[in-house]
Amino acid sequence: MEPSLLKQLVESAGAITDGFKLTLRTMLRPTVTEDYPDEAPHFTERYRGLHVLQRDEQGLEKCVGCFLCSAACPANCIYIEAADNTAERRISAGERYAEVYNIDYNRCIFCGYCVEACPTDAITHGHGFELATYNITDLIYRKEQLLANPPAADNSSQ
Fold it and tell me: What domains, with CATH codes, occur in the chain?
């Protein structure tokens, strides 16, 4: 046998041995399985899921229609129309509120710039991840879909 052929055989045998070692080591580790439909997945605190429009303690919307989130968005996926609050109809604590607030998840890249730009902490990333659909118009989330539930009423004073 030639020295180069013998050298190739030894190197190949070493590579195969290393592969078998790795396979055996991996087989002996416990498996990590998420039972997704039955159990909710476990996300880290920093996970960037579907956006949530937050409310304050009184249940008013935090968004004051300043358009900073829309301006900061590199994908240009946030559309806002602002309106003025009135004494009879108060939607937010500020002078204005977002009458229309849409996020087009066809374009959103979940970068978090909108969350960082918001001066009132009105928009945050939630842990929602179920976004798949067969209809692209379903990926345009409107204000009603993004708005957090109002805080529960305190019945302890009654």
Answer: 51-146 (3.30.70.3270)
